[in-house]
Amino acid sequence: MIHIYDLGQRLNEEDKELSLIFGEGAVFLVILLIGFLYTVRAFRKELDLSKQQNNFLLAVTHELKTPLASIKLFFQTLRRKELSEEKRLDLITRGGEDVDRLNNMIENLLLSARFEGDALIPYMEEVEFHDFMVKLTDKLKFGVAKDHFIHVKAKGSIILNSDPQFLNSIFINLIENACKYSPAGSDINVSIVEKGKEIEVSIQDEGQGIPEKDIKKVFSKFYRAQNEETRTTKGTGLGLYIVYELLNKINGSITVKSHFPNGSIFITSLQIN
């Protein structure tokens, strides 16, 4: 009986030791798996960021080269004496459009750089918003929106306290984005509605919309839904990122409604006081 008891006790102790070993091993395995998953996730994140930065560099290179090449060609053509006055004015107009395009891109690059150091401070003042939007869209009709029809709908005068330069950058980028992804000759509808202590500005296009998987990413820095090497639209992936960051600076917000493949609505909320 003593020997049987000793054997049973020994087996019981061995079972406990095995249980401890397996338990510790299981814990170690779980920790190892968690570490592996975090490593894979971090690697994928870095890979995605690297890919986006590479796409950004390709885009900037293209966006710089294309208008510069056009401007050079315009100047070379203007040197010809046989040009008609109508043709000369057309080339000057198109050259001015390319200069504006370069200027807007440089402004976006500078704004993006200033976000990193939190060096951008809004200077608030009273803005008559309806008048502001009418003047802005009238200007864009001869630039980025020259191939589209912009309609501004609002009721009465709306005064808000904001930074006019911030507002200018926000709505230039939003309207340019709407035009960029919409077919020529389509409508861009801008609706301004007062809701309590806020105004809601909706910009609706007739493009192909945004796939559901991309909606949460559209305001990310450098993000573009297309590969830069095969893209058919212009851009650097900074426009909507700048819109989002500038709105944060003036306590505004933005949401997106997509009717893929029948267009998108970007809805901006701005505080009146």
What's a quick, concise take on this entry?
By secondary structure, this protein is an alpha+beta fold. The protein has helices spanning 2-78, 85-116, 129-140, 164-180, 239-249; strands at 125-128, 149-154, 159-162, 187-195, 198-204, 253-258, 264-271.
Write the layout of secondary structure elements.
Blueprint: H1 2-78, H2 85-116, E1 125-128, H3 129-140, E2 149-154, E3 159-162, H4 164-180, E4 187-195, E5 198-204, H5 239-249, E6 253-258, E7 264-271
Parallel strand pairs: 2-4
Antiparallel strand pairs: 1-3, 4-5, 5-7, 6-7
Helix pairs in contact: 1-2, 2-5, 3-4, 4-5
Oligomer: single chain
Q: So, CATH architecture of the domain at 126-271?
A: 2-Layer Sandwich
Give the terminus-to-terminus CA distance: 91 Å
- Low-confidence runs of at least 5 consecutive residues: none
Please give the largest β-sheet.
5 strands, mixed
How are the strands of the largest sheet arranged? Answer: 2-4-5-7-6
Radius of gyration: 29 Å
Number of helices: 5
Q: What is the ordering of alpha helices and beta strands?
A: HHEHEEHEEHEE
Alpha-beta content class: alpha+beta
- Rounded average pLDDT: 77
Using the coordinates above, name the CATH class of the domain at 126-271: Alpha Beta
The CATH homologous superfamily of the domain at 126-271 is called Histidine kinase-like ATPase, C-terminal domain
DSSP helix fraction = 40-55%
CATH topology of the domain at 126-271: Heat Shock Protein 90
Strand content: 15-25%
Number of strands: 7
- Outline, from the CA principal axes? elongated
